[in-house]
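User: Please predict the structure of the protein below. I'd like the answer in structure-token form so I can feed it into my own downstream comparison script.

Assistant: Understood. Taking the following sequence of 272 residues as input:
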Amino acid sequence: MGLGIKTKAVSLMESARWRVGAIGQKLRPALGLAGARVNASFQSPTDMCDTDRIYIYALVRGLRPKRALEIGTRWGGSARIITAAMQDNGVGKLVGLDPATGSFRASNRATHGRFTLVEGRSPEDVGKAMAHHDGLLDFAFVDALHTYHSCAADLHVLAPHMAPGGHILFHDAFHPGIRAAADEFVASRDDVTDLGMVTRSPSVNTPVCNQGFRLLRIGDNTDEMVRESYQRMGVAYPDRPERYHNFDKFAIRIGLVEESGDGYRWKDEENS
């Protein structure tokens, strides 16, 4: 079968698979399978813009943190979003630190039993909050006082409590003081990866703009994370992963990749 005909046949098969998948997605609510609690992103009381609400839910779903700390909880809107994502993940505990706990409005039910509120200030009471965790943090969210000095203190007190590969997300990153504190923190440490401004919808204020997230990673645990993810899904991680560098089911079906004695290769690899 020529490559062109084979490609058309595969295209028809892919179209059929897409249609079946689309029908399945429409049936999920009727079958009681619409488990994602993403609606918490829009139903929770918080000053975050829609972009930031969606992002923090998706980020927690993707990172699957087991231990998290929130500095600055206010009404509890972001705590509801984070714990909704944790509940969907089936793992995770969030501890919140705030000096004005009387403003917190989220119930234990709304946070799925995954949240503990601690009265106190950062940086001096971060240790008190960490006493509610049994290990280092996978994720920290900073949304407290929007000043250079406060953000700088938050970042420096958090660093020793972060697990390798842990992420620090801070809100209102368009604020010039917060940006300066983050820039200095990144420049002062060799183990910090600046993942940049990950949402870009600033509020229009005078004299400064707020909203927006910036994300930092402390250290790296990519290999451990990948292996743990394979294990969680019940799949053995390949002993020789290099054998599968060119493995792709679609490329195999349309004849661009073939299995060789020591893995998978492009068919024209010998002539390249």
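That's the full token string. The radius of gyration is 23 Å.
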